[in-house]
Amino acid sequence: WKTMDTPPTAIFCATDAIALRVLHYAAQQNWKVPGELSVVGVDDTLAAELHTPALTSVSYPIAEQGHVAARSLLRRMTGETFPETLI
After folding, report:
1. Phi, psi torsion values for 12, nearest 5 degrees
2. What is the DSSP letter of 55?
3. Residue 49 backbone dihedrals phi, psi, to 5 degrees
């Protein structure tokens, strides 16, 4: 990372678990987080909140997304159409 011509200043991870591993590795390498590197996770878990330094995490409302998907499916099954931008 530090040997790269232009090292990244941030890493966006697919999950908090991955982001926490990145933070662990960064600490082993003595990289300053958030000074030299910013790390973001997805899930908004308690582990992310309790970690030092605290992990920035994006909330991903899975239950809400499931409700939206189910309502959309039921609407499609009854013949309702959607604008192209919503499909």
Report:
1. -105, 120
2. P
3. -70, -40
34: which 2 tokens? 């958030």
Task: Look up tokens 């999950």; give the residue.
Answer: 15
Q: What pLDDT score was predicted for residue 56?
A: 93
Can you tell me which residue has the tokens 């990289």?
31
DSSP label at 33?
Answer: T
pLDDT in tens, 1-37: 667 888 889 999 999 999 999 999 999 989 899 999 9
Q: pTM of the prediction? A: 0.69
Sequence letter at residue 23? L
Using alpha carbons, select from 43, 51, 52, 39 the residue that is nearest to residue 16: 43
